[in-house]
Structure formats: C-alpha cells, structure tokens
Amino acid sequence: MPKALSTFLKEPVTEHIQLRDAEFEAIGVQLKEKVDKIFGRSLAIRELDAGSDNSVEIELNNLSTPYYDVERFGITFVASPRHADILIVTGAITLNMEIAAKKTYDAMPSPKFVIAVGDDACGCGIQNESYAVLGGADKIFNVDLKIPGNPPSPKEIIRGLLSLVCQIEKQSRV
Amino acid sequence: MKTAVKDEITKQLGQVDYVEGKNNELYVPIPEAELPKTIAALSNSNFELVSLFCAQNFKAEGFTLFYAFEKTGFEEILVLQCHLSGNEAPSIAKTYPSACWYEREVTDGFGVQFQGAFDTRRLFLHETYPADFHPLLKSFKNSKITTVPSNEDNAYQFKQVTGEGVYQIPVGPVHAGIIEPGHFRFSVIGETIFNLEVRLFYKHRGLEKLAEGKSVQDCVKIAESISGDETVANAVAYCIAAEKICDVEVPRRALQLRTVLLELERVYSHLGDLAGMCVDVAYPVGASPFFILREEIFRQNEALTGSRFMKGAVAVGGLTKDVPAESLKALSAYLEAFKGRFEEATHVNTSFFSVADRFETTGKVKPEIIEPLHLTGPVARAAGKAGDTRIDHPYGLYRELKVKAKTEQNGDVQARFNVKAKEVQCALKMIKTVLSQLEAGEVQAPIQVKDGYALSMTEAPRGQNIHWLRIKGGVVDRYKVRTASFCNWQAMEHAVPGNIVPDFPLINKSMNLSYAGTDM
Lengths: 174, 520
Description:
The structure holds two protein chains of two kinds.
Chain A: H1 2-9, H2 22-38, E1 43-49, H3 55-62, E2 75-77, E3 86-90, E4 93-94, H4 98-106, E5 113-117, E6 133-135, E7 145-147, H5 154-171
Parallel strand pairs in A: 1-2, 1-3, 3-5, 5-7
Antiparallel strand pairs in A: 4-6
Helix pairs in contact in A: 2-5
Chain B: H1 2-13, E1 19-20, E2 25-29, H2 35-44, E3 48-56, E4 63-70, E5 77-83, E6 88-90, H3 99-110, E7 113-115, E8 166-171, E9 183-189, E10 192-199, H4 207-211, H5 219-224, H6 231-245, H7 252-280, H8 284-305, E11 314-315, E12 318-319, H9 325-350, H10 353-359, H11 370-373, H12 378-381, H13 389-392, H14 398-401, H15 413-436, E13 452-460, E14 463-472, E15 475-482, H16 484-495, H17 504-511, H18 515-519
Parallel strand pairs in B: 2-5, 6-7
Antiparallel strand pairs in B: 1-2, 3-4, 4-5, 8-9, 9-10, 11-12, 13-14, 14-15
Helix pairs in contact in B: 6-7, 7-8, 7-15, 7-17, 8-9, 9-15
C-alpha cells in the first residue's frame, strides 16, 4: 500500500509532448460552444467517399487522432447515416457510386446538411471532365458548404465545420 | 545483363526478334497464333506475369496486347507484344490466374474478347454503364454518357455458396468507418468465413482516359491522384517513364530529394497501418504513439514540399522546386528522436499478449499463391518472398543505396506488422544516409518532349507499381497504371476464408490496400 501511495504522489514520469496547436484549439472551443447550443452537445457526421483519391479520408481520420481529437468538441463520426446530422462527401461522384451515395443521403433523418470536402467533391478537381464521374457533390446533393483543397488540412476542415455551424445558427434552421 | 535475359528467352522461345525498350524492357513481338505456346513456355520457366494491358493503334491499326513478365534474378522486364487481327485473343487466365482481372479490364476498356476465359463478368464498368460502352477506344472522346438503370439482366452475379447453415453477409460499398467504398460478399457458416468475394471499382474515375491528350508535364497531377497516399511513388514512376522517353537526365540533387520523399511516404503510410492494426484489436494505447509520429511526419512533409501528401513536389525532369534548407535541417534533427520513440511504440504492441492473440495466425497468406497472383510488397514479403522493386529493378538512387528486403515467414497479420515496422526503420536509415550526402545544384532538368513509349516501376509502400506511358504527337496517347493493390486485393479472397468475421477488418487493415489505386 505505501508503495502505491508514493507512486501516486510522485511527479509523472511520462515525457510531455507538445501536441496542441493554439489556432486549432481556439477553433475547436468555438465549435464546441456552438455544437452545445445548436446540436444538443453532439454533432454527428457520416462520411461518404464517392470517388476520392483517399487523401481526404486520411485527413478526416486524422481528426480523431491524438493531435486533434475532435470528439472533445462534440464531433463524432458515426457508423450509420441514420445517426448523422451532417454528410461529408469526398471525391467527384462516380457513376459507380451514384446509387449508393443517394441511398446514404436518403437514410439520414432531417434536418440534414451536406459538406463537400476536397477539390473533387467541390467540383473543381481534375476529374470533373471524365466520363466516369457526374461531377462535384452538388450534382446530386444540395451542398451547404464546400471545403476545397487537395486535400484540405485538418485545420481547414474544422474551420469549415465551424463556419457551417455558424451559418446554421444564423438561419436557425434547427 | 541484357544478354542473360535474351539467352533465357531464346532458350524458351527459340530465336525471336527484340526491340530494346527505353527503360530496361525487352519487347518481343509475337504473332497471335503463337501466343498460347509462348505463354506456356514462359510459365514453365517461371516467368511471372506482372501486368497485361492493351493499346489501340500502336504502330498499326487495331489492338495490341502487352504481356509484361519478370523473372527472379533478371532486372529486365520482358514484354510480349501481340498485335490482334480483330478484337479476340486467347485467355491466359488458366495458366496465369492473375490475368483474370487484367483480361476483364481490357474487355471493359477496349471491347477485346478473351476466348476460353473462366470469368467474363465486367470489372470496372458496373451495371450503370451501357453494355456496348468501351471508354478506352480512341473513337470515344471523353464526355459524359447516359447511364442505364440496373435490372435483373445486368445485375452482377456473385459466386453462390450453398449448403446447410451457410448464409451471406453483404458489406458495402459504404462502410461503417471513414473508409473507401468497396463491396465484400461473405459466405459464412456460424462465425467462420467460408468464402469471400470482393467487388471493387466503385471509385472508377476514368483516370487512364483522362490522361489521353494531356501534356507530359500536366499528367503528373493524374499520376498523383491515383492514390493519395502513394502520391510520390506514382508521380516518380510516371516521371521516370516520361524522362526515359524524352532522354532527360535528372539532376543528382533531385534524385536524392525524390528518395527522401519516397521513403517519407513509406514511413507515414506504414505508421498508419501499424496504428490501424492496433485500433482494430481495440488497443488505443498501442495505436496512439504511431498516430502521433505519423502526424509529425505529415508536418515534416508539409515543411519540405508545402503539402502534407507531398503533392505537386515531383515534376518531369526532377522536382517542381527545391526544398528549403531549414526544413531539411529540421528533418534531420527530428529523425534523431524518432527512432527511439518508434522502437518504444513497436515494443508496446509486440510485448502485449492480447495483441499477439489477435495478430498471430490471423489472415494467413500462403506462399503458393504469391507468384500465381503476383502478390507484391509487404503482403508478399511477410509470407516469405524476398521481392522488392527497389532491389529487383532499381531506379533512381536505389542501385547505390543497397536496400535489403525485410521478410517474415508466417504470412499472418503479425508478420505484416513486423515487416512494416522493420521497413520504417530501414526507410529512416536511408533518409539519413541520403541527407548526409545531399549535393548542391539544380533540381530540375529542362525537358524536350519526344514521342515514344516506356515502362517504369516503383516500390510504393504497398508494393510494386507499374506505369506504361506512350507519348505521341507530343502528348500522352496511352497511360496504363497497375498498382500493387490491384494484385494484392486478390490475396484477400484467399487469406480471409477460415477466419471469423470480426477478424476481417484486422486482416483488411494489415494489408491496407488502396481502393482508389485499384479502381483508377
């Protein structure tokens, strides 16, 4: 027992790693405030890859890694569209994904919002002229926000999220 | 060296004509009628099929098929070149099973029919594409098309497994996580997977057609968008092909910096896989250190090139711009601390019994499927095959860097974890070596575009990527890419049966194949 107590009182021995980026944190805190108010403390996002080159997926996944950890701000990436408030669409919509993309959106409860993330989803990527894609996400969805980039960084994505939430607050659509 | 492979071919095929390629390839024109005999002879002497593709109006009107082979011990790639009189060719899939997907791909793209093929379903063209549509025909000018609704007639036929207690689990194309789309059809008995059929190409973006008519320099962007996390590997492979065609000598400093970027890409890619495997056995303590290191590498990438994925860094002739000196210095300093932290992170996982319990014996790739399917990269090396494009077909600086292939024997998730961990260490060493010898000078050679064609290969983090480029009239006429994922997806169908359903995500993560890189 005494041993356990001394362990408890000792300075932690783990190395302190400077993980946090001040600007990212500031955006996160603002976002949390809005999410608390407008979305009842939890904003659920469903991701839909409709034909990206996979780099946007990597950045979206990075949002949940220790450096960013956006769940602190009330942001959750959910497994089912049934649980989602927001659909994040990446990639130009391929012909092969058109039906699955529409079904994913249809499965979401209203009110629902769509964000296009990355140049291809925003309709300004190099794939736009291909026979194999319909074009940007706005070809089949009513897009509420576009976050361009090849790919946009985690900071740009979270900044985009904040701007959408502010927009929703103004329109008081919820 | 070329004499040796010529002797070997002469031994198998008798006297044949050769055309020496621009990048250590040997093109051997074969009359249509002799194709089956030639394929049988090559198969008997252990030539491994590494790619099969088609080009239209190559030297003569009509279709030309290219069968690319490698053989252990030879640096050169043998490319059989078979001009077809019509739009039919004999299938070689019974001799070379990996040809199955290639042939289906050629049929979709060009409408060439393969006689005797055991699988004639469409591959990248799903139900939504009209039946007579072949996008890679020169007669089709890239434009939007009218799709067709799916119905019973054009529905994709999955293999049916029947019997008492057998049921199917269809998964995808949209998955539960932030993952690329693809469909998995499991046939399951109880909890054990009896059969898995993978259906991909949901992300088919028509990149090969998109490349046609592009200027040689502009096409780098298309190479980069094949698979975001293989940006550098594909950009470099494309550029090597273009540089060989245009007889460009890349400045040494650019070759050195390309090596740094290529290996950084391997490091961050493998770190993601190592972390992902821990996540999939619900061990975040093990995953977090890898995620932290990976993010730091992304930031190094950004400091070096302005892009976390190093997009826009590589150009035909070298690099688009030089790398800032202070970023190189910062990278050297950063790597000093990286090694110890990485070793600790690896140890956390390899020493924990419940991780080993899930990793060991799970998702075994058997050695006997490696060559027939041409499995490549860490998937093959973890099952005992000492192949690595950096060693077998050296490019850039790799001839002098003397890479050693990291292998394991068991072929399971643990073996893939170990191989990837060792390759991170090896990549770090290489980056340090190159940085210590970095030369001053230009990073971009001027290019004068010439017509011609060449094949090039790189060892991407996932394995061997092959690019074949033809420039005609100063622009890209045909650009064919076969990524490591295209081959390795077929390993999944063999490695998964016998495992339980909850182990599938783990097996999938341990291979970490690119959907985008396969679907093109």
